[in-house]
Design goal:
single chain, alpha/beta, Rossmann fold, UDP-N-acetylmuramoyl-L-alanine:D-glutamate ligase, 2 domains, 11-stranded mixed sheet, about 40% helix, about 15% strand
């Protein structure tokens, strides 16, 4: 699903007005559609006590109009207006005049003491129209107090377009933010709805049509996309196809004590439909591998002290050179021999996924990526990404949008940063935000499964971006289905995710 930054949304609203749709019409459409969503999610509002919080921008005007619709449908409505009347733009000003003429109770708030705490505490529905997508500074004073009162209430909280206090482009909390139950958002959702921590505050996100012209949305090229069912592509399989039609994936990894990594990656790749999977492993773990994965082939090579030996590099290079894709790094270990192996494999002109210790080895010569000719997908978690960048992990977390975009463009790679809101950055500057998955994936081995899944799609011939987002989303979806089928976050294991990949793919095919 396309996502719009604050600046892009302003541009689309401007184009809508230039088309001949007055701003007041867009506001009325936003308010009536939001009202319908409240009815769908809350139920009959007749007799309910509603308190609305109104700021200066168009969000405030939307909240005023929503208050009118609730009042007309039998709700008891009280409106707090947190700015002077002179601050209203023309459309919010019109909606204020309407509620005033209708006799809807309202009060201007100029200090933190102007609120009636008891009224807010006992209300049934709260409407948050304090700030919109343009918020760029920390929330203070009476605005902060209003948000705190909303969050301390047991009422059903509706935030207009985006919960007040969330930075629309990043999901950052600007000191404090409304914890919404429902967020009707207009024309397109915003990155802050899906990026943590903002994602935890938005509740149910409902994208509503406000009559923004279709061509404006169709022509819009987003910087951000949220991953959902509609972004995932599973290719049709002809009934006369054979295993050779679905690619041969080479998985290079494993070492003594870390055989499970390459085992899980191989099983996940098979579940995602790779025609053939060959695991290149040190001979020290070959027996373990072959007894654990019956459907994949193994290619054992010489090892030293349980890990790949540099004497086997030429043999590995020769073996993978005619495969459709290479998945590198799971359980590899970081030694002089494995660093040399990774450096050499970078020269192979085949699509490649690099994960785990493959990335840790790569961090010693990251500029070698610039010499790659074939598509490359990196799948680090924040600590691994910090090693690639040569910075602290906390800096990656705090500036992840900037860093993933810069890295993908600088090195011409796809960068999958594994977090709760996994980001997939492309060389052309687009960032995909994953919406599937759960905290049960926070366990060792989950990343190995993901790499095998992406590798399967890459070997099957999907374009690299599609391969990456297919793997990321289906990985999360399989984990979600596992939880729905009775597992808990505490006992979800990577093998359970592998066991539910088939249901995740079936779900997409049925859409």
């Amino acid at each position: 699903m396309k996502l719009s930054t604050a600046a892009q949304m302003r541009e689309m609203d401007k184009k809508a007005v230039e088309t001949g749709i007055p701003d007041i019409v867009l506001m009325e459409n936003a308010s009536i559609k939001s009202f319908y969503k409240i009815i769908e999610n809350y139920g009959d509002v007749k007799g309910s006590l509603v308190v609305s919080f109104v700021g200066a921008g168009n969000n405030g005007g939307d909240a005023l109009a929503i208050s009118r619709h609730l009042y007309n449908n039998g709700a008891n409505v009280f409106v707090y207006i947190l700015v002077d009347e002179s601050k209203f733009n023309p459309s919010p000003k019109t909606n204020f005049e309407i509620i005033k003429n209708m006799g809807i109770q309202h009060k201007f708030v100029f200090s933190e003491e102007d609120f009636n705490d008891d009224l807010i505490r006992k209300c049934d529905i709260l409407i948050d129209g304090i700030f919109g997508t343009g918020l760029s500074r920390p929330v203070e004073g009476r605005f902060r107090r209003a948000i705190e009162l909303i969050n301390n209430s047991d009422a059903f909280v509706v935030s207009v377009d985006i919960p007040s206090g969330i930075k629309a482009d990043t999901g950052e909390i600007m000191g404090v933010a409304v914890e919404a139950d429902l967020t009707p958002t207009f024309a397109l959702a915003k990155p802050g709805h899906f990026l943590y921590p903002g994602r935890s505050y938005a509740g149910d996100i409902e994208v509503v049509d406000i009559s923004t012209p279709k061509y404006v949305i169709d022509e819009f090229a987003p910087d951000f996309v949220s991953l959902d069912d509609g972004e995932i592509e599973i290719l049709y399989r002809d009934e006369t196809a054979h295993k050779g039609n679905f690619g041969h994936l080479a998985i290079v990894g494993g070492s003594l004590g870390k055989s499970g990594a390459v085992i899980m990656a191989s099983k996940a790749a098979l579940r995602c439909g790779a025609g053939l999977v060959s695991a290149v492993v040190p001979d020290s773990i070959n027996t373990i591998f072959e007894s654990s994965v019956l459907e994949a082939m193994s290619y054992p090579v010489g090892s030293y002290d349980g890990h790949f030996s540099k004497t086997s590099i030429e043999e590995i290079m020769d073996f993978v050179s005619n495969k459709d894709a290479v998945c590198l790094g799971m359980g590899l270990g970081v030694f002089d021999d494995t660093k040399e192996l990774v450096k050499n494999l970078l020269t192979i002109n085949k699509p490649m996924i690099i994960d785990a210790d493959g990335l840790n080895c790569l961090s010693h010569f990251v500029d070698e990526l610039k010499n790659r000719k074939a598509p490359t997908i990196l799948t680090p978690h924040p600590k691994e990404f910090a090693r690639l960048l040569g910075i602290d992990t906390k800096d990656v977390i705090n500036n992840r949008l900037e860093f993933v975009k810069q890295f993908a463009q600088q090195f011409d790679v796809l960068l999958v940063l594994k977090m709760a809101d996994t980001l997939t950055a492309t060389p052309n500057g687009k960032i995909y935000i994953n919406t599937a998955g759960n905290v049960g994936l926070a366990t060792g081995g989950s990343g190995d499964v993901l790499s095998g899944m992406i590798g399967a799609f890459l070997s099957e011939g999907y374009n690299p971006v599609q391969a990456a987002i297919n793997g990321v989303y289906l990985h999360g979806l399989a984990a979600d289905i596992a939880i729905e089928n009775g597992l808990t976050y505490e006992n979800l294991q990577p093998i359970d995710v592998i066991g539910h990949i088939n249901e995740a793919i079936k779900h997409i095919l049925e859409q």
